[in-house]
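HUMAN: Ready with one sample?

ASSISTANT:
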Amino acid sequence: MSHRRPLITGLSAGTIALGVDYLAHAVVNVPLAPEQAGYVLLKVLPLPAFADLLKTLGTLARPLLLMGATIVIIAAYGAAAAVVGRLWPRWTIAVMTALVALVATVVAVIAISPGDSALGIIVEVVLLAGIVPLVDAVLTQLMSPIGASEDRRVLLRNLFYGAVGIALVGVGYANVRRFVTALATREGTLADSEVTSVSDFYVVSKNLGGDPVVEPSSWRLNLPTRSLTYEELLKLPSDQLELTLECISNEVGGTLISNGIWKGPRVSDILALTTVPSDAVWMLTESADGYTESFPLRELTPDHRLVTHLNGAPLSAQHGFPARFIFPGHYGMKQPKWVTRIRFSADDQPGYWENNGWDERAIVKTMSRIDRPFDGAALAAGAVPIRGIAFAGARRISGVDVSWDGGSAWQAAELQPEFSAYAWRFWELRPTLSTGQYRIRVRARDGEGTLQPSRSAPTLPNGADGYHTITITVA
């Protein structure tokens, strides 16, 4: 027997299995094995290493992690088959490779994603494990003695390589599509207008394998004593709220921040439709992608919403259609998308990101950013317009200072009128600068007069700190 046969068997089985897995995930939302493998990696990575990875790769971390996990799984199939083939060169290869697939899938899907349906788990296990003996049987025919029917061998060979080709195209297309999508929507844009367009609004998601697509006809908001359809939710009284969202992983000077006009019913009005237990302290939410979040009931205000619209249009799938929560004053991780359930508890149950090392409160820190000029710009001497944004969540902004000597001296910038109590605030300054190089820094004060921290801090676990700084040359 060829020494390459076990390796080819394993690599082919892995490729076909993942091709089937991607197809099943797209059609019936079967759990995606590379996504589960990525979650395993995120759970075992030390928090500092995770923070460094996030800072280095930024929003490319998600598609790259998915592609990497896909390659690793296929390679693992090949390695396992090669080892088993060397030790047990005959029939054991199919059995052992199937066992590896079975064990790996059960561990990845059940242990790491306990919220997935039992049917989905069974389907994935059968597909991933059962494909291995099939591939080995095909290879057996391909490598059968010369006396075998040549026509049969040619037919089997064509069928086999056709299946491998289809699987490769499926896996490659799915990964490239997700990679390109991530590139196209990876961050927001600089604040050139009050309201960020939906197409420019930043998007962050935990879902390596793609976000859920929810059909409005089948969607339900499940409450303890009843459920609401999408049409019933739309009929509830709703108001508009202009609010800026910022991701907790937004770096100093980053663009994971956008401003929009949200519309939807008040959370308090929704809770009035059900029975809230007398001992309830926490409101717990669940989403279509398994995302969970918790929020103290005592902090609910009339401005907490379950929104259905952004900038006058129904939420897009990326922004949580059909409904997402808006909790002013908190980072985006506290604004769950694709919400399907609300329940209550006397005890706190940390949400998805809190269980992965991020801050439970996730209160927005005071931030400021220079949008113009760009870092490294060359400008003419004279009045140089410097402008940008400042944001402090629910605490508002009371002042912005700008320095063009690296922080030795500061001058107050002119604040533009507030858009709303929860929206970013524009600022501008036009200092007269002579020839030379300048390090421009910005800092902001919240509504209580507290200055944003100057000391740099990473995004993990509770958001970045530090002054945004750029360098320009004036000639």
The first helix runs from residue 4 to 28.
